[in-house]
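Troubleshooting entry. Yesterday's outputs looked truncated, so today I'm pasting the complete records for two proteins to confirm everything comes through intact. If either block looks cut off, that's the bug. Protein one:
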Amino acid sequence: MALAREAAFRSVTRIFEEGERADRFWIIRSGTVALDLQVPGRGRAVVETVGAGALLGWSWLCPPRQWHLGAETRGPVHAWEFDAGAVRDLCAEDPVLGLALVTAVAETIGDRLRATRTRLLDLYGPPGSQLNGPTS
């Protein structure tokens, strides 16, 4: 938390855009943020909404360090903001912390990928498609 600074965003604020450089991340304290992606010919599609206690942003951890999704507030948001480079440096100095952080971020990545898959199937999958494949 020594690396955290308080951040506040107004309602309907774009925090980051898909493809931009990912050099920071946030832990949301209050409010909600919609995560979206550009769907060719259709515009932005919200794939998940995250709120208090959630990690906002994981793309800073792995090269090429560009956002994989966009993020927009759904109302006022208060968060703790972290400089990604400083956090990576701290993790390099303290491998135990680094492993714990990478594990937590990996869980978030898995959750976001599942949510994105589900949302895209809901929006664009064929009628009657099943999320888990056929049952026997």
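Protein two, checking that the full record survives here as well:
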Amino acid sequence: MQSYTIGQAARLLGVSPDTARRWADAGRVATHRDDSGRRLIDGRDLAAFSIELAQGGTGEEEFSYTSVRNAFPGIVTAVKLGDVAAQVEIQAGPHRLVSLLTREAVEELGLEVGMQATARVKSTSVHIDRA
């Protein structure tokens, strides 16, 4: 079974290494040490913890009623407005998401660089690559 360093786990969870370290220190996710003394998280434990995080949320955001289950909360990093269409980029942890939508939708949502937003993805085809 693959194990992950605290830094690798943090990247996969979309948090800082300090946050992942605090979670490990608090016993929220089990760690063990390798031969060189680095703390590692077992892949199965990390997978279970990531599901727990996703289901629990942070408690800070309001619940929204939607059929879209793939939510990527992040920060707006770019807004490009055209006459009719617009392009919005969101950085959600290690993920950069780009959405094409109408200019009217961007204006109604009041989207601006630096504000928090959630990209929601619904797809009929999802591809998975093994790292």
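Both blocks look complete. Sanity check on protein two: Helices lie at 6-13, 17-25, 43-56, 103-109.
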